[in-house]
Fold:
Amino acid sequence: MNQLQQHIRKQIETTGPISVADYMMQCLCHPKYGYYMGRDPFGREGDFITAPEISQTFGELLGLWAAITWQQMGSPSPFHLVELGPGRGTLMKDALRATKAVPGFQDAAHIHLVEISPVLKDVQQEALKSEQIHWHDSFTNVPDGPAIFIANEFFDALPIRQFEKGEKGWAERFIDLDPDTDGLRFVLRKDEAARALMPEGLKDKPEGGLFEVSPMGQAIAHGLGARITQQGGAVLALDYGYTEPGFGETLQALKNHAYAPVLKNCGEADLTAHVDFTTLARSFIEAGAKTWGPMNQGDFLERLGITQRFQALLPHANDEQRPDLIAAHKRLCSPDEMGTLFKVICATHPDHPAPAAFE
Ligand SMILES: C[S@@+](CC[C@H](N)C(=O)[O-])C[C@H]1O[C@@H](n2cnc3c(N)ncnc32)[C@H](O)[C@@H]1O
Structure:
């Protein structure tokens, strides 16, 4: 039993079962033992790989998307270019390289990274050492002013609550001590107040149904939506997710590029849940913003010209690099890889014209 599991067991012994959201928060963000707090989990040596780590084209196109969005905003100077959950800083690095030639864009941009992991902050500092970067623990600390927010695989790392329909109706899933082992187990707890979090249409689902909700994701989307409505700007969020609420269970743990048990190896595996794009959109809209999409990542990248970008890179690649480039294009865009599993949503100030790729 690792130290985080001992800590969680002690907490449950003292205060009773904890919600799935509390468990995720501890596993990912515990200041000492949290998954993100003490490691760089990316790449072949790590637990998973993300789009910016698959190909430089991803960050380049998102950078150009941000430059067009800035022009649509009337090219405000200064403005804030903010990335939420920037991982190794690769996306921002590629975005800044691609937008060097856009007149005025980088002179106007104040760059902000919202990151909780001290280890990843160091990695980002190294990747972006020639840039002036401001780090924050929360987007609410980004100074006032027009802003463009980019969030790739950020919302999927936020804690979710889970509800299950059992014999006696809907109840929330909690995590308790397993009396038969020294491990943990799921239990159900009836909580009438929690039903308020569920969409009306789902309350009549048959037994066995499972519903997930991310109050933290909703609160962040609402806060971002309110900010861009009041101060101008846009949010671009890309993540694996679904567009019909009540999709079922998506909570998963990943370790060494393979699925792992959710209730074991606390803090040693990445814990994520697919993003509910309908609810995310509703949070933006309720805050006054306008939403565009969601659309499939493959379509989004194709509309921004990813195929042409790969075609431009291919003649410069050697025999070893060429198959990797072709595989990276397929991985990002193909419907049987990240092309449809990942969705893209944009929120803007209500007066903003259709953002690039969402026309
Ligand atoms: C799955 S990684 C995605 C990294 C990067 N966007 C990419 O595509 O490579 C999630 C990122 O969000 C950060 N993160 C997780 N929870 C966070 C939170 N509550 N606030 C800020 N950053 C968070 C992690 O440390 C990490 O940088």
In short: Residues 36, 50-53, 85-87, 91, 114-117, 120, 152-154, 157 surround S-adenosylmethionine (CB under 6 Å). The two ends are 52 Å apart (CA to CA).
